[in-house]
Amino acid sequence: MIGFFLRRLGESMLAIWGVVTIMFFVTRVLGDPAALLLPIGASAADIEALRDQLGLNQPLMVQYFHFLTSALQGDFGTSFQHGRDAMDVVLERLPATATLALTAIAIGLVIGAVAGSVAALKRGSAVELLVMAVALLGQATPVFWLGIMLILFFAVNLGWLPTGGYGTIWQLILPAVTLAVFVSASIARLLRSSMLDILQEDYIRTAKAKGLLRSTVFFWHVARNALIPVVTMTAILTGELLGGSVVTETVFAWPGIGRLIIQAIEAKDFPIIQAGITLIAAIFVLINFLVDLLYGVLDPRIRKAR
């Protein structure tokens, strides 16, 4: 188990390093932030002086080395826009993103579990066809389009909910539902497929032959085993949403990490971009790391296969 733990830890650290490295070099392609930070009409000498102050005149590999050594100490520099520690600014947005992500996951899990179970139990019927058609549509619908349509219908036409913002439960409903549609659709399709496979297993036929109640067979034999792949899917979706739902946060003016990164990209605020993407990568990798460890505990064959 210790060897499995160390291998997965090493792979996780390598993944984070790869993301951070790619992110560093990609941000340098965005352009020169010094020209944006100074007033329009600033002289070339002023721009050059600011570049020197920000360390942008150093060779690229020197900048990369300084970035890595500082990042290992939790220092991602000072935000060009906010004039504060970049990671502090990013962490301030984490509660908003976590609230949105966890609400969407909760809604999606409930709806997806019910829809997937109904579709599996009603196999071959019109109900299954309808549920799977809606689920497929939910997965295929672009998030930004769905968000805009919900705003137009519930906020603009009906006036029931606010168009965006942060702070009340009413402002949370539309963005959470927008994300929950994809989550519930993904879980419903996966759970249905998993349950149909398990229903064909010999031990299910044996349980039915023993005269067990249908509800007992469903809850204690089918549902429990079918939820294993759903756990993986939920972990992946949670990591993605906690990492920042960029499009949804932008559409609904939700002050989360995703929206902050978009604003930082527009302003070429390298420290915020670097801190934000590093945090996203760390959250995503950590969740997957914990799920891998859980699988290793539940099924020793996974540890030996590594």
TrEMBL record:
Pfam families the UniProt entry points to: BPD_transp_1, BPD_transp_1_N
Cellular location(s): Cell membrane
Membrane topology recorded in Swiss-Prot or TrEMBL: Multi-pass membrane protein
Main location: membrane
Top-level taxon of the source organism: Bacteria
Keywords, ordered alphabetically: Cell membrane, Membrane, Transmembrane, Transmembrane helix, Transport
Domain ABC transmembrane type-1 intervals: 94-295
Full protein name: ABC transporter permease
